[in-house]
Amino acid sequence: MKKYDKNGNYSYTLGTTVTIELLKSKIDKATRVFYHSKFDKNDTYKEISKLCMNNNISFEENDKVFNILSQKENCYVIGEFSKYVGKIDNTKNQLVLVNPSNAGNLGTIIRSALGFEITDIAIIKPATDIFDPKVVRASMGALFKVNIKYYDSFNDYLKENSNHNLYPFMLKANKELNMVEKLIPFSLVFGNEASGLPDEYLSLGTPVIIKHSSEIDSLNLPIAVSIAMYEFTNK
């Protein structure tokens, strides 16, 4: 057992909740599950054990694995799973993240997207690895319930999803979120945490701004994305 390698074929779920989501949503990708000797043999233990047994997945006690993969005191279950190539549905509303670089933010955004029933997410490279255990953990297992596809460029994304109405979120945009006509299928486009979207995105679709007070320079990316998704999915 080795620490996570972004070039490897496997990743890990660090924690009980996220491991259960793996077993329930992507059982065909799960390979092994480990538990710590301090893990209580309660109903959760029995649930995980049953899921593993019914699907011929190894479920074993192994404290050494936790010393290698997780230093968190509250982590008592670790799942191992095979990485997989994702795809998205070009008939559905989508979230597009251009060069996201923070693992925690990406995981939080994935979880929020699932909460607003946006289950198709495009990620434009270069970008954080969705299979980084930090992303998986921050998503609380939502990663296994959404469809995610990487694209080498935004133009590559457009070629496959030309039927979408684009809404780039930018500080230089003129149209406020609550005043925009929301057409479907839509693509909500957000840039990097630090730099946002480049100016060329101002010529694409309908650029949108989320107004806030002058006391701050910008909103945290996961918060801005959540506000946008709420507004666009609020029936």
How many structural domains does the protein architecture include?
2
Helicity range? 25-40%
Indicate the proportion of strand residues: 15-25%
Please give the number of β-strands.
11
Rg value: 19 Å
Largest sheet: 5 strands, parallel
What is CATH's topology name of the largest domain?
Alpha/beta knot
Instruction: Write the CATH architecture name of the largest domain.
Output: 3-Layer(aba) Sandwich
Termini separation comes to 48 Å
The number of distinct helices, counting runs of at least 4 residues, comes to 7
Q: What top-tier CATH class of the largest domain fits best?
A: Alpha Beta
Looking at CATH, the homologous superfamily of the largest domain is SPOUT methyltransferase, trefoil knot domain
Alpha-beta content class? alpha/beta
Low-confidence stretches: none
Q: What is the H/E order?
A: EHEHEHEEHEHEHEEEEH
Shape: elongated
